[in-house]
């Protein structure tokens, strides 16, 4: 499940606004801070509005309707105009008399136009929380958004092609040849997790080719160690300043065990070789004696 911070609350009274006013108000509500400091160019890019003049008209209209409490124009050090700061009117924004709708903050990353965003938000508002879908007709959506029926049909087709909603046509109960109202689902887009590539550590145990083992197995010797050239060890760790020196590192417990087994194996092989050589020498001596005895006088 996604975190509650990935959603913002949109009052249902905002559906009475125009498409540009609705998208600008929704983007300002998606900013989590109380002080909305954002450029008009950024609002135009996020809301997919053509020009900044349209954004300015929508902001002035929201100021007149009471959704934006005040707008402050900042000044830079060189007395140039800076980024605007907006404060929303809590009485208008938090007016939940007609209910509210939870919208994803990532909806502005899909590149939706203001009209598409308004239809998408209306479908999200109409979805039943228990069933997970809504069954509003084109006429209901056109009345709720203030658009024509043909415009709503085209916008729903565009949202369906983008993969944001899914539409299912259901037959009327008892009349298999007659279609009833459409059923709409919201399809949430989730970001794919990026797997980090873990590079193996270059240490004494991993670099087998650059390690020279000097193993001793006397009872009075110290724990086993391996000697590694400092130039090989500091190949990725810094400057090879002391290439003529050697460093020692402790061999892991697994290396000790393997080395002891190798020593035992080599000693057993050496003993077997000696036994075989002794046996073969005795056998060759017997054969020589037999040949001498069998030889004619």
TrEMBL record:
Domain of life, per lineage: Bacteria
A Pfam family: HTH_36
Alphabetical list of InterPro entries matching this protein: WH-like_DNA-bd_sf, WH_DNA-bd_sf
Name of the protein in question: Sugar-specific transcriptional regulator TrmB
């Amino acid at each position: 499940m996604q975190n509650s911070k990935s959603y913002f609350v949109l009052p249902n009274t905002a559906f009475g606004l125009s498409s540009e006013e609705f998208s600008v108000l929704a983007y300002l509500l998606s900013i989590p801070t109380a002080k909305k400091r954002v450029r008009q160019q950024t609002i135009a890019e996020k809301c997919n509005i053509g020009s900044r003049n349209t954004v300015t008209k929508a902001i002035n209209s929201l100021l007149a309707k009471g959704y934006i409490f005040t707008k402050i124009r900042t000044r830079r050090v060189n007395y140039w105009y800076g980024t605007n700061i907006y404060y929303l009117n809590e009485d208008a924004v938090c007016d939940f008399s007609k209910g509210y709708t939870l919208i994803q903050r990532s909806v502005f990353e899909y590149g939706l136009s203001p009209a598409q965003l308004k239809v998408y938000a209306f479908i999200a508002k109409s979805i039943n929380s228990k069933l997970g879908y809504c069954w509003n007709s084109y006429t209901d959506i056109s009345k709720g958004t203030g658009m024509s029926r043909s415009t709503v049909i085209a916008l729903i087709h565009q949202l369906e092609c983008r993969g944001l909603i899914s539409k299912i046509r259901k037959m009327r109960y008892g009349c298999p040849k007659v279609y009833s109202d459409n059923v709409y689902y919201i399809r949430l887009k989730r970001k794919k997790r990026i797997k980090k590539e873990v590079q193996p550590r270059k240490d004494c145990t991993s670099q087998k080719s650059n390690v020279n083992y000097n193993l001793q197995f006397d009872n009075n010797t110290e724990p086993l160690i391996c000697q590694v050239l400092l130039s090989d060890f500091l190949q990725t760790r810094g400057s090879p300043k002391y290439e003529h020196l050697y460093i020692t590192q402790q061999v892991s417990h697994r290396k000790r065990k393997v080395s002891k087994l190798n020593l035992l194996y080599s000693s057993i092989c050496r003993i077997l070789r000696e036994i075989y050589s002794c046996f073969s020498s005795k056998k060759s001596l017997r054969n020589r004696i037999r040949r001498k005895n069998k030889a004619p006088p």
